[in-house]
Structures are given as C-alpha cells and as structure tokens.
Amino acid sequence: MTTAKEQYFPGLEGVIAGETAISTISGGLQYRGYGIEELATRSNFDEVAYLLLHGGMPTPAELAGFRKRLSENRVIPDAVVDFIRKLPRNAPAMDVLRTGVSALAHFDPDTDSNEHAADVRKAERLLARIPTLIGVRSRLKRGLEPIPPRADLDFSANLIHMVTGKVPPESHRKAFEVSLILYAEHEYNASTFTARVTASTLAGMYGAITAAIAALKGPLHGGANERAVEVLQSVGKSSNAEKWIRDSLARKDRIMGFGHRIYKVEDPRARILKNFCRELAGKIGGQASDWEGVADIIERVIWDEKKLPPNVDWPAGRLYHMMGLEVELYTPIFVSSRITGWAAHVIEQHDHNRLIRPVARYTGPADLKYVGIDQRQ
Ligand SMILES: CC(C)(COP(=O)(O)OP(=O)(O)OC[C@H]1O[C@@H](n2cnc3c(N)ncnc32)[C@H](O)[C@@H]1OP(=O)(O)O)[C@@H](O)C(=O)NCCC(=O)NCCS
User: Fold this and answer.
1) pLDDT at residue 37 in the model
2) Residue 142 clears pLDDT 60, i.e. is over it
C-alpha cells in the first residue's frame, strides 16, 4: 500500500476518499446513472429526491406514496417553533436552520437507530420538514406568523409558499425546481464528506446532517450563492460591468460564483440553470433582464482573464433574487435540496461502514523538553 506519507495532496485535491454508487462527476454529472441534463429538463424534484434516497426511479405508485409521506410529515413540533421564536432576531438563517435540524432529532422516534429503514424514514422526515424550518424562521424574523405547510402543493411550491405566503407562478416554480434538482447531489464535496466522516463514527443521521449544514454555510461552498448576488448588487447595471470586473481582478479579488475544484472548463449545472434564468428574466424584464447582461459580461471577462467558469451558485443566486426571495435564504434553500444527497451518503456510509480516519503530515516541532511553569519566563 502507498502510504499518505509518500503522497500528500493539499485540500485532498484529486484524492479518491471513498466509493459511492450515488453520483459521479467524471464523464458528466449523473445521479444514480441518470444524466443531470435529462433530470433537470424532464424529471421533477420529488422524483429525483426519491431516486437519491431509495436508489432507483419510482413507479407511479411509489412516487405517490413518497409524496404522501412527505406532505404528511411537513409539520414540525410546536416546541421547535417556540424555540426558534426565542432565538436572537439577527442570528444567521443558516445557523438557525442548523440548530433547528439538530432540535428535530429530539422528537424523532428513530433518532438512535442507524438501521437502513430507520435512516430512510429520518431522511424523508428531514426532507419534509426543512422547508418548514426555513419558512417559520423567515416569517418570524420579518414579524409575521408562520404559515402552515400545504399538503396539496409539491415540494418546490410549498417551500416558496411557506416563505412568501403565495403560490408561485408556474414559470418561477419550474425554474426554482430545476435549481433544486441541480443542487441535490454532488459526490464528495466538502459538506457531503463532512456528513460521511460524521456518519462513519456511527453517529446518527441528525448529527451528520447538522455537521453538513455547518460545512455548507461557508462562502467557498454553498454560501457562494448569497455572495454571488452581492457581486451583481455591487456592479449595479450592465454598463458598469466590464470596468467593475476588470478592477476586481486587478485587485486579485475572489469572485464568488466562479471556479470549482473539479470543473475547470464548465459546470454543467451552471449552463443548464443559466437558460432558465434567462427565460425567466425575459418574462420579468427590468433589472432581472439587465442582470443577465451583467452576468454575460462578467462570465466573458473572467474566462478571458482567468479561465474560470461560473459554477451553479452564479445563476442560482440571480434566480432566487429575481423571484424576490431574501438573500439569506439562498443557502438554506440549497440545504432543502442537498438534504437528499447528504442523507443518501449517510445511508450508504452506515450500510457499508468503515471509520474514516486519514493521517496527517506533521509540521510542528519535536522532542521539546518540558519546563515547569515556575521556570518559564
Ligand atoms: C471553489 C473554489 C474554492 C475552488 O478552488 P480550488 O480548486 O481550491 O482553487 P484555489 O482556491 O486553489 O484557486 C486556484 C487559483 O484560481 C484562483 N481562483 C479560484 N477561484 C477564483 C475566483 N472565484 N475568483 C478569482 N480567482 C479565483 C485563485 O486565486 C488561485 O489563483 P492563483 O493560483 O493565482 O493564486 C474556488 O474556485 C473559489 O473560491 N470560488 C469562489 C467561491 C465559490 O463560488 N464557491 C462555490 C463552489 S461550487
């Protein structure tokens, strides 16, 4: 065996850290063997969530049963709502979501079991309840009372309704749903790896997902969709875009929504979502339409100067902004979808577990002599 001492890759770049049958990026992004392009354009989020959690495409009866279980599980315990009510108003939405998911563990009858069936039940409950946590927090923060979940709406429409109080127009709902499909799963990214490491100690689903949410918050990962909009807000209008981006690059700023550890030429998710953004912006007009022009200019200059492609967070931030959603909900929305991929990885880890425990190259001092505290200056 080649030991880690001989082979060290900073940031674990290119390291195969485990096996998975859930998704692959090499040769085109696929979820359980289905290409992302087809899933985004022909499937729907509920079906993709089933595919990820249950391992194959549902029959009509299986999908109906899945949707029924999701809609029946959307309500969260009053104690969790009361707890969220008491949190400081300025607590970041991602932190509240992390705390909320952790709190839900105490009310789940399957919390202590890592059995496959129990893990799937917990995954479905989390998938159903995360939009409720997002909606409750968002409305309480704005001084509004939470809206009960609507069992007659699909996942994407219910999520938007719980935040805004309105059923979205179909063009908005569809573009939003595509973003959820594209966000659902992405192999061994930082938050998924976090979930797998946590699960590999035989810690449970809730602990692993809580840890994953903490990892996703960072701006180099899921937090980038919120920062991408700050770029567009800072540019303002398309006539400023070329100068703005050239000045930023000259200052060596890191432009959020660009670059990726694996995609060096194109993030296919960004390409697919950009088309939906453009279509919706065309319908909305005004600033939404101008921001598509801003996005085009920034993409062109960053590619010419740095050879960095936009990643999925670049169009996603724009899409959520044109739908009128608050910026601090963008990464929680990512969570509402990625819970499917994370949970599938936790289940896969528990089903074939071996503790994940790599080694480090030591760079500190060695063999120092201990000096008693009374003799130290
Ligand atoms: C995602 C990301 C962390 C991957 O980075 P990575 O593979 O670790 O690459 P590094 O951070 O080592 O960057 C390599 C080079 O590209 C540059 N670079 C990478 N992303 C950049 C960006 N978004 N803007 C400007 N320069 C960038 C780095 O400055 C570095 O240049 P240098 O070699 O001249 O110092 C990185 O591209 C990034 O920070 N992107 C912005 C955040 C983002 O959108 N995250 C969401 C990812 S889906």
Assistant:
1) 97
2) yes
What is the per-residue pLDDT for 377? 87
Predicted pLDDT of residue 6 = 78
Structure tokens at 159: 């999520």
Of the candidates 161, 172, 186, 260, the residue annotated as catalytic is 260
Tell me the pLDDT band of 351, cut-offs 50, 70 and 90.
very high
Give the residue from 333, 73, 18 showing the smallest Cα distance to 199. Answer: 18
282, 331 contact by CB (below 8 A): no
Active-site residue, 367 included: no
pLDDT digits (tens, 9 = 90+) for 168-181: 999 999 999 999 99
Q: Are 322 and 277 in contact (CB under 8 A)?
A: yes
Q: Is the CB of 131 under 6 A from ligand 1?
A: no
Distance from Cα 99 to the centre of ligand 1, integer Å: 29
DSSP states of 200-244: HTT--HHHHHHHHHHHHTSTTTTTHHHHHHHHHHHH-SHHHHHHH
CATH code for residues 224-322: 1.10.230.10
Sheet holding 34-35, edge to edge: 23-24, 30-31, 34-35
Greatest CA separation for the chain: 76
CA of 256 to the centre of ligand 1 (A): 9
Q: Where are the domains of the chain?
A: 36-220+330-351, 224-322
Q: Please provide the size of the chain in residues.
A: 377
In contact, 219 and 256? CB cutoff 8 Å:
yes
pLDDT in tens, 228-259: 999 999 999 899 999 999 999 999 999 999 99
Tokens found for residue 90:
């300025």
Ligand 1 centroid distance, CA of 29 (Å): 21
Q: For residue 285, with 0-12 CB atoms within 10 Å meaning exposed, 13-18 middle and 19 or more buried, which class applies?
A: exposed
**What is the pLDDT, as a whole number, of residue 4?**
54
Task: Look up the CATH number of domain 36-220+330-351.
Answer: 1.10.580.10
Residue 1 is predicted with a pLDDT of 59
The whole-angstrom separation of Cα 144 and Cα 305 is 46
